[in-house]
Amino acid sequence: MSTTLLDVVQDILSTLDSDLVSSIGDTVEADQIADIVKKVYRDIIDEYQLPAQRVITTLESVSDTSRPNLLKLPDDAQALLQWNYDHRLEDTDPIRYSPVEYLSPYNFLRITNQRNVSEEGFEVVYVETGTPIIVDTRYGPKYWTSFDDKYIVTDAIDLHVDATLQASKTQAWIEKRWVFHKLDSFVINLPENLIALLQRTAENEAYALYKQTVNPKLEQKESRLRIRAQRNKHRTQQYENNLLNGAPNYGRK
């Protein structure tokens, strides 16, 4: 069963022997407790790098024929770990994904600047800063970089296949930003053990704020949950290390 922000606020109000509410906006106290939950939520996200942040999705199309080799990162992307592009020539052909390799802006320009734009199959494309990039228009993308952490700039696009790079032909493994919406229905999308830690930590902070003292029993519960969460964190890190062994983090932070 999903745990919502309202559920957490109601539990904390009950612990404080305060008036219960049907919405976080019903009382000033409930609204302040929601702010405490938000703060604790963000603290937990900063402390625990959770694999749930990483999802497979697609990049976004720019659909600008003057910049056909560009794609856009999703707004909620914190890092682009890896992505593939479908290089099939016809829609009826079998899907043919290949990884697109990240290069630093320096190395990307070093490679593309070696091209002879006077030769057939090369064009100059001006990226968003007005900087010219020599793009290979005979093949699909092999390399990519980003100059602004917003747009993906590739070294090539097969203009015989598409007028611009297509979002539908991408597979992107991204790390998403964790968001918090101060709404009754907002689902606390954390692992169960971290939801418990969030509740106990927020309870402690709310108790200290409203009672002007600490509650030893609540502190003990929070301490036990934090130790347990740290153990789970180490197991998660080992899993991630095994998963990403030898795979560099191609992306932005």
Which properties best describe this structure?
2 domains; four-stranded antiparallel beta sheet; 34% helix; alpha+beta; five-stranded mixed beta sheet; disordered C terminus
Q: Explain this structure to me?
A:
The structure is a single chain. The chain is of the alpha+beta class and 253 residues long. It has 2 domains: 13-27 and 42-50 and 190-243, no CATH class; 53-176, no CATH class. It is built from 5 helices and 11 strands, in the order H-H-E-E-E-E-E-E-H-E-E-E-E-E-H-H. A 5-stranded mixed beta sheet has the order 2-3-10-9-6, with no helix packed on it. Strands 1-11-4-5 form a 4-stranded antiparallel beta sheet, with no helix packed on it. The chain is elongated, with a radius of gyration of 24 Å. The two termini are 33 Å apart. 24% of the residues are buried.
Short structural description:
With 253 residues, this protein is α+β, with helices and mostly antiparallel strands. It contains five helices and eleven strands.
The percent of residues in helical segments reads 25-40%
Name the strands of the widest sheet in spatial order.
Answer: 2-3-10-9-6
* Helix/strand/pairing category: alpha+beta
Low-confidence runs of at least 5 consecutive residues: 234-240, 242-253
**What is the count of helical runs?**
5
Order of helices and strands: HHEEEEEEHEEEEEHH
Count of distinct structural domains = 2
- Principal-axis shape: elongated
β-sheet strand percentage: 15-25%
Radius of gyration equals 24 Å
Total beta-strand segments = 11
Biggest sheet, open or closed, and with what strands and sense?
Answer: 5 strands, mixed
